[in-house]
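Batch 3, record 17
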Amino acid sequence: MLQSIFYGLTIGGILYITSIGLSLTFGAMRIVNFAHGMVYSVGAYGLYYLSHSLGLPFLVAALGSLLLAIPLSYVIERLVIRRLYGQSIDYAIVATYAVLLIGVDAIKWIFGPNPLPISDPVGISLNLGFLEMPVYRLIIIGLSFLIFVGLSIFFKKTIVGKIVVAGLQDREAVRSLGINIDRYFAIVFVLGSALAALGGVLYAPLSTVQPYMGFQVLVLTFAVVIVGGMGNFRGTAIAAFSLGLIIALTGRIWGPAAEAMVFVVMAVVLIIRPIEV
Amino acid sequence: MLLSVENLDVHYGSAQVLHNVSLHLNPGELVCIVGRNGAGKTTLLKTIGGFHAPSRGKVSFKGQDILGLPPEKVALKGLKYVFQDKRVFGELSVRDNMELAAFPTKEPLSEAVAKLVAIHPKMEKLLGSKAKGLSGGERQILLIGRALVGAPELLLIDEPTEGLAAIIIGQIVQILLSVKSKLSMIVVEQNLSTVARLADRIYIMKEGAIHREITDPEIIRQPSLYENDL
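Prediction for the assembled complex:
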């Protein structure tokens, strides 16, 4: 049981890190951004390429992978997302889904369609007798907590964070003060995308990297955003860890239902609190 | 002339909501726009503020054509929009709200806060409070205080007394009159007794057009003389 809770917290940590950017773009810009899944995959494949193909140490490869995702997400924002502000949500779905498909095909073209393994970079476990905790998973939980604290400070204490918080509530009112809100949303978009890439980096050693991993995480992160509330930073964290625990605990009872339970929870939330798009 | 609006047409899809609207504002003037719900008052104000693109017409501010500029650029030119519905940034503190207003204008936060406190000293005690906890009147005062940051020359204020108690309306009117010497204002207002206390001139709007302009102070002070025109 404790082992399942521990694994659930790891899944929750990765879901949180991956979801926060999606929550912001969904909440602030009202854009359903499927390209988020592509950036997540790029993070994982970047790690694979830099660590396996070039032989760089894990930390350097992870950092390099994030640095690769930042200009990529900037290009996506400038060429695709920025043209979707204020447009119908349908356009956003079609345009960003196209970006995701292009990304998947590009990955298959470069790396092939087969799953590729990345080993646990730490490879040590803490054995408490009743609970075995891989240190790498502990690092993921710790890192997600640090990111939560860091983002909380960012949104409460920095002017960029305050502008985004205000823009989430009332974009027009921010513009009426003389602030070009789109510029700040773009910064946050890149930040959120970098976090998605970090999610991909962190998840890769727990599983394998494969071309469709972006699709799989996307449905889970959308569930997190819907359960936690669009643009709700604290809600996203609570939802991510709760759903992570639900996946792990359901998986312990009946494996095939693990991820399905996430959508049961999402459905219940939607019934209680429908989304206005 | 500070502001000139000429022959403005605005459409929402295929529906025309403003018809050939023209008005002007002189420096130091406080002009009220009155009319029933749906007359086009807010649409007119938002079009001047850059939030709506008209299908025809011209808007000049200090002799410069501002039509087509985004709202943030219009604001930085000294034309500030104050929304109706008391739209403060509720999750931020009162001080943070002022910080956001000060940021694009490069005005020090202390000066921005001083402007807010100057129009309503009680706001000093509320600086650390979240704006969502403010009363309706305090929210409206915060909105006016935010708009005063920088060096605005014209405020576009939409329904500042809507939903407020009579005593609070009196405070808002006093605040608007106190800042009137420093800048010009266009105020959309439905409460005609408030209009009578505030306005130098009145435009009455009906069905998306300017129906009547009232310039005579004697008439302005007696709403009974024009309330049937709404």
